[in-house]
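Entry 12.
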Amino acid sequence: MSNQHIKTWIAVILAAAVALPAGAQAGEKKIVHLELKGPLQEAPPDPMAMFSSSKALNTKGLLDRLKKMRRDNDVEAVFITFERVRMGLAQLQELRHAIDQLKAADKEVYIHMDSCYSSGLYWLASSASRLAVVPTGDVWVTGLYGEQLYVKTLLGFMGIEADVIHIGDYKSAGEIVTRTEPSEAAAEMHNWLFDDLYRQMLEQIAESRSMKVARAEEIIDNGPYTAESAKKAGLIDEVAYRKDFVDSIKARHGDIPFDKEYGESGMPEFDMSNPFTMFQELFGKIMQAPSVSSTPSIALIYVVGTITVGDGGAGGPFASMNHGASTPLRKALYEAAFDDNVKAVVLRVDSGGGSAVASEIIWHATKEVASRKPFIVSMGNVAGSGGYYVACAADTIFAEPGTITGSIGVVGAKFVTKGLWDWMGVNWHPIQRGRNADIMATDEKWSDEHRAKIRTWMEDIYGVFKSRVQEKRGDKLAKPLEELAGGRVYTGAQALELGLIDKLGGLHDALEYASLEANLGEDYDVTILPKPKTIFDMLFENFGALANAQSHPALPNTALQAALPVLRSLEPLKAEALLRMLQQVELFQKEKVLTVMPYEIVIR
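Predicted 3D structure (tokens):
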């Protein structure tokens, strides 16, 4: 690192330390102002995020702050505002539950919005004690809308054709690359998912706004609304500018301070009169490794994103997009299993699956944990296919009603690239020894003989997957496993009825349940594994990568490279779905057989 780089980092750190706001003092009555901005992430926060101008949201961190507010007698109320917030349906329901708990603790929850730009945002905001929108704001409550991604035509433009084999009529992941619309089985599955998700939306909005479900459906079918018409319909309580709404809150609670920093982890405090002491404390505290605690702990391990084999460090252009690499997860699970200070383990899964091999490796490590101490799974927005595979050895599985799960099945593919090479004017001449040496050759689709061999191999893998589920959950299933498998996908509410999960609830529910199972009471730590890197690690290991970071991963052609910034601006959810699909295509080339969700769908 150059001297100039070091000076730059010192300046950034010093500026961050000096600029810290004071906020309300401990022991003083306060109203917490919670600003929710940007995407709500599942993975542990990046240590470098403390230097960012925007505060990244993390599910556990947000829930911890809300729990602290609920238990703090000095917190009289909570004021929530939104700015481009994005979260999955399960996260939305988990946050709704936390708001309901605040209200049950006699703490009013006020929400103000400049504009309610989606039904999902309203689904969350409707849980407020009092909800307001600015006079010119819109309330876009129009229902549940989703779009499924298909890229067969895109591959065709590049001269690429996919050849896919799926085990199970509902295991439709391969349709993304072989069709331009869903098959009959896939469409049937989409409909049962949306029927249940829409039911949940209607029932929860109706409950929050004290109206009948039929009335909630009628209101939604007549949307969208202006702020004034939304108030008349009973969707909101007040039409008011932010300042006027805040003044009305003060009028109810007295002129007590609003605390915008409540519960946030900040920089350490320093004696600013002595710069040498300040720098010593600053670098000593933010760069040291976490101290080892003797307090009994629950290990919290995340499986987020595509599940891949290896350490995730050399997984191609899309490897950095996920936290599902098998090697660090296996090590973390074994560390938790054999650490006497760890009394229970919670696996937080937010993954649509990936490599069948990696899923088996992680599953085997979870078996070791489950044989030694309580092992609980908390499912996030998605825990399907490989995401369900790694969860099925748990003693108890939690999911939100809106969690997407199941998809017990496998899919395999190869991509015929001859058209692309022909377009480029490149010819390849094959040389072969061995009858099946060309089984994965990319110049033509599988022959009938090769297709039969691949299918037999995949059926064996599918059989192993089903045996893993049957071993732990066989007695809990409401139907024979084959009737639940075959790639079928369910909501968390449906999965509970079918015995695929055990309880409805979120991450905090899973942690509290684990503490009960381990007889810990409330005196325990939560230890995230693998242990997060220190800022020192991040600075000196990844500085070169940070300095040369691209705005997006490498993409397979220049048209996509040019289009991605526009897509991310206009259609961020679709852009992310496209990147996940490309990651899946790359994974097919490495793994050949995947345990992945049957589609990439964007729900609004």
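Annotation: The mean pLDDT is 83. The longest strand covers residues 30-41.
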